[in-house]
Amino acid sequence: MDAQGRGRAEEIDPADQWVLNPHTGNYELRLDHSAGQPTAPRVTQQAASRSRRAAAPADSAPPGTVPAARPSRTSPGVPGPRRGDGPPPGGRRGARKRKQEKPRGKKVLAIVGGSVAFVLVAASVGGYLYYQHLNDNLKTTDVAGAGTGGFKSDQAFNILVIGTDKRTGTGNESYGDKESVGHADTTILFHVSKDRTNATAMSIPRDLMTDIPDCPTKQPDGSVKTIPGTTYVRFNTSLGQAGRDPGCTMRAVTQITGIPVDHFMMADFNAVKTLSSAVGGVPVCLGRDVDDEKSKLKLTKGDHRLEGEQALAFVRARYAFGTGSDLDRIKTQQAFLSSMIRQMKSKDTLTNPKKLFSLAEAATEALTVDTGIGKLDKLMKLGTELKSVNPKNITFTTLPVKDNPREGKKHITVVVDETKAPQLFEMIKADTSLTEVKQQEKAAKDAKAAAQEALLQGNRAAASDVRVDVYNGGGPQGSAGTTLIWLQNSKGVDKASNLGNAPAKLKKTTLEFAPNQADQARALADMMGLPATALKQGAADAAPRTPMKLTLGEDFKQAGVSLTAPTTAPEGIQRVAADEQVCQK
Q1: Going along 73-195, which residue ranges are E strands?
Q2: Which residues contact 434 (CB under 8 A, 6 or more apart)?
Q3: Measuring CA to CA, which residue among 47, 30, 24, 55 is closest to residue 95?
Q4: Could you say which DSSP state residue 228 is in?
Q5: Does residue 212 sit in helix, strand or coil?
Q6: How far apart are CA 511 and CA 306, in angstroms?
Q7: How far apart (Å, rounded) are the C-alpha atoms in residues 302 and 261?
Q8: CA distance 339 to 549
Q9: How far apart are CA 522 and CA 446, in angstroms?
Q10: Distance CA 415, CA 539 (A)
């Protein structure tokens, strides 16, 4: 029986019959230990390789001994030495070949590569979780259709920023009315231009006397409840009072200005503290020492960096600066917000990850927004739209107001200045930047001079010779009738007629006339403030006593209000650029 057969018969693994001769360093087959042959210690398969490394070379022998002759390959008992460490062909190897180790450099790369992959996965998961965390920070309000619900990258848009006097947050209950439901204490209509190069931030005084319209509000159960409007009340009651939500403030602003509001953002007292701290403090300048008991603001003349409680005291201070009116407090708030914008856009903030994380945390915790921008990705998109606006092109201004004629004391309450305010509203609606006003004023003067020179070369008909039929093609209801009365009573145009509604709606007001009626058209355009684009001259002359055709479009507001967008700001309007530091006095 051969070795393999013998091994199977005795249930011995043939591989275990190959043992290492420590004297020769070679494996030898031991078929029968009783054959009288000198036996070598058995070496198991697991220890084989270790013993082999420890054995002397094949050609050496222990000191003082004579090396034994190597058995011949043809010896019937013991085969000769093999090449390699395994058994002869057909048998199992006595010791498994060791797996070749990777070079150390490759090991390190594999470990580092695995670590990097783990870090990237962890960062991705962590980033997603943090994103969700910030997303969960946001609070939203469904304004029941008060806003447009969106903004497009190729259009100007308007955000209503509301600061409430609600005393939420640690320590804020000590400020004034701790039971306040949160009125519209600070309100700014933030207009961003179509080309994203400039913005106008118009503050609306909290003590403005106005009418608050009826306001549909979304209830927790999904139903809509309409809060009845009120007449001649303070503007700040558009929020909080009688259950009014930010959508009511949005509606009130649109009613006052005629400017549609797209979205709102609202924050309370705590936001001022957390945001100012997140950016490492907001630099301010004081023109004199201040020690105001009511706001708890105590600062020396000069430059300061305010955060937390001090920052809140600064924006709350009403009697510390100017005449102690709400209008002077608005100037203080505008100076603070201008400085905060500069701080947020500074390299010191944008290159500081800790500040950026703190700012993201503080902003999302502080804000309540409408559902249209109530997700972090939408706010990020909004931020992308705003990032290109340079602070020098952000102009803060205040809605033009005058003292309330019903009150004898100055600046207790105010009313809209009907002379100056419409001009500012039209500039915002026409997307005209206040930062460009100086250049535009010069261009307007040059254009006006050129236009006046051209007009001098053309004749104007007398008002009594102007014949015109008036149609309403999109203006407010009854506009054709009210315009007719205005032309007849205020301008002396007694040959005008009201022909009711136009056959089709028009976006823009137009005046159609024949070449031989050009003098009448010039006269009427002057009276109504029609732009050159509104004049549509026909090809053929008209028969005598044929009236021109004036169609009032959707851009028409009321008789006497010019349709030519203003290129100059109202005289004496308060304004300051966000890149300017103004010392408060």
Answers
A1: 139-141, 157-164, 184-192
A2: 200, 395, 397, 427, 569, 575
A3: 47
A4: P
A5: strand
A6: 58
A7: 38
A8: 53
A9: 20
A10: 49
What b/e sequence results for 428-453 when a residue is b if at least 16 CB atoms lie within 10 Å of its CB, and e otherwise? Answer: bbebbbbbbbeebeeeeeeeeeeeee
Listed in order, strand segments (DSSP E) in 320-363 are: none
Average pLDDT over residues 323-352: 88
Q: Are 215 and 247 in contact (CB under 8 A)?
A: yes
pTM greater than the 0.70 cutoff: no
Q: Is 222 exposed, middle or buried (0-12, 13-18, 19+ CB in 10 A)?
A: exposed
Mean pLDDT of 312-324: 88
Comparing C-alpha atoms, which of 345, 362, 333, 88 is closest to residue 187? 333
DSSP-derived secondary structure letter, 34: T
Q: Which amino acid does the sequence have at 426?
A: E
Q: Which two tokens stand for residue 374?
A: 């109530």
Instruction: Take residue 44 and report the two structure tokens written for it.
Output: 């198991």
**Length of the chain measured in residues:** 585
First-to-final CA distance of the chain: 116
**DSSP character for 83?**
S
CA gap 216, 100 in Å, rounded: 78
Residue 145 per-residue DSSP state: T
In one letter, which amino acid is 87? P
* Distance (Å, whole) CA 566 – CA 430: 8
Residues 51-109 pLDDT 10s: 444 444 444 444 444 444 444 444 444 444 444 444 545 444 445 555 555 555 555 55
Residue type, 388: S
Find out whether 156 and 194 touch, Cβ atoms under 8 Å.
yes
| CA proximity to 331, closest of 276, 393, 398, 395 | 398
CA distance 581 to 573: 19
Q: Are 506 and 554 in contact (CB under 8 A)?
A: yes
